[in-house]
Amino acid sequence: MAGGNFPPRAATAMLAVMRCRFCGDRAGWWWRRCTDCRKLWSVWQAHRGAGMRRLLDAFSATGVANEKIGRFLVADLGGNDGNITDQIAADMANQLSDALGLRGIQSGADVKRLRQRGAWRHYDQRPE
């Protein structure tokens, strides 16, 4: 049947490859994270607030390459929460404040803002 409802030659279908939100590797069909980052995310959720040494030991116990763990830690999650490292630093600051008897109110967004502003260069002048 010439003409008909179909194009005269076969059209090649281009399927978009889903990329991991954290590391940028292939995530597979309908996934926002690759299998390694899903493992790291579940470890981070399970060990959040347990301390940096315990958290890093749990990350390395997953068997994921150190380079990929590094990409996971600095990945921007979108929004204002900052990356995973910012959230870990906020948790640690809040734990320290609680131990000193102060109310810890540091968030990942606060740590991100401090990181982006830079360090104090002169003690009597604020960073730019």
Unreliable spans are none
**Count of strand segments:** 0
The first-to-last residue Cα distance is 71 Å
Amount of beta strand: under 5%
Q: What helical percentage do the residues reach? A: 40-55%
Choose one word for the global shape.
Answer: extended
Average of the residue pLDDT scores: 80
Descriptive report:
It is a single chain. The protein has 128 residues and is an all-alpha fold. It is 45% helix and 0% strand. It has five helices and no strands. Helix 1 runs antiparallel to helix 2 and helix 4 crosses helix 5. It is extended and about 75 Å long.
Secondary structure blueprint with pairings:
Elements: H1 35-47, H2 52-61, H3 66-73, H4 84-99, H5 108-117
Short characterization:
The chain is mainly α and 128 residues long.
Question: What are the salient characteristics of this protein?
Answer:
mainly alpha; 128 residues; 0% strand
